[in-house]
Write a structure and sequence with these properties.
The chain is mainly α and 312 residues long. The chain contains 11 helices and 5 strands; from the N terminus they run E-E-H-H-H-E-H-H-H-E-E-H-H-H-H-H. Helix 4 packs antiparallel against helix 6, helix 4 packs antiparallel against helix 9 and helix 9 packs antiparallel against helix 10.
């Protein structure tokens, strides 16, 4: 038997963002605050859209799905981190770690696909406005979301099964606040070359494919807006894309920032800190971007709170 090789491990140790005891209370309060803002912010978006029939359109249908996915995405990692800080424990079970990897990849994939679907929706609305209701019918919208779920499930399932097949060594410390796939692969005793190839190929396919679709949609949108003669018409057309474009930029820029920071520094804790941007900050900001830049959402939220107050 190889020294330090144990395929029947019971769990891992999540080292978190900092080893300083004095910072634990601050981290707990900060991440609890951001988690609650994320959950309630996205929940209010879902309630506002669901309660207002004026917002029962494809764009807001996709937005509701994005808000739901963002709640689940954040809930995959933050509650466990908060529990570990509160109990002064760094442990996570093997099953819990694999589950984190599965659901994390699932909801990242869903975020990516939904942003692409929303770009296609804006493309149809601006480039083919007369045929919008015919093209973006209920059946197509449901099918696009269903296909997004299927592809995300298959992607996360494949990655999780490949991790399950790996043996692990005695060093089970993960320099992160959740079970991040690349960090787990570094703990494997066997050669993870195949896993690395699959990760880079599928990540490139999953991230690059949707990004190409988004860029293509916006290239057509820009061309269509450029052809509008009036300045008011151009502004109105662009304003319908502003919120989505902001979220797309935030999603891809934070993801790219995490990748570049991990490649540029040898500090694992620096990479973990950078990951906070796309795992916590981006889902937290998404509902604010839509609500602050969208009059329909603002009015729907006002009507929802008025109805809630009158009902009491």
């Amino acid at each position: 038997m190889d020294p330090g090789n144990d395929t029947r491990i019971s769990g891992f140790l999540l080292l978190g963002l900092s080893d300083e005891p004095a910072l634990q209370a601050l981290l707990f309060g900060l991440f609890l605050f951001m988690y609650l803002i994320t959950v309630f912010g996205n929940l209010f978006t879902i309630l506002a859209v669901s309660s207002d029939y004026h917002l029962h359109t494809p764009m807001y249908f996709f937005l509701c799905n994005l808000s739901f996915v963002d709640i689940c995405f954040t809930s995959t990692t933050i509650p466990k981190m908060l529990l570990n800080i509160q109990t002064q424990s760094k442990a996570i079970t093997y099953a819990g770690c694999i589950s984190q990897i599965y659901f994390f990849l699932l909801f990242v994939g869903m975020d990516d696909f939904l942003l692409t679907v929303m770009a296609y929706d804006r493309y149809v609305a601006i480039c083919h406005p007369l045929h919008y209701t015919v093209i973006m019918n209920t059946r197509l919208c449901g099918l696009l979301v269903l296909v997004s779920w299927i592809l995300s499930v298959l992607y996360s399932l494949l990655q999780s099964l490949m991790v399950l097949s790996l043996p692990f060594c005695d060093n089970l410390e993960i320099p992160h606040f959740f079970c991040e796939l690349s960090q787990i692969l570094q703990l494997a005793c066997s050669d993870s070359f195949i896993n690395d190839i699959v990760i880079y190929f599928l990540s490139g396919l999953l991230g690059g494919g949707p990004l190409v679709g988004i860029l293509y949609s916006y290239s057509k949108i820009v061309s269509s807006i450029h052809g509008i003669s009036s300045a008011q018409g151009k502004y109105k057309a662009f304003s319908t894309c502003a919120s989505h474009l902001s979220i797309v930029s935030l999603f891809y820029c934070t993801g790219l920032g995490v990748y570049l920071s991990s490649a540029a520094t040898q500090s694992s804790h620096s990479g973990a800190a950078a990951s906070v941007m796309y795992t916590v900050v981006t889902p937290m900001l998404n509902p604010f971007i839509y609500s602050l830049r969208n009059k329909d959402i603002k009015q729907a939220l006002k009507r929802f709170f008025v109805m809630s107050t009158e009902g009491q």
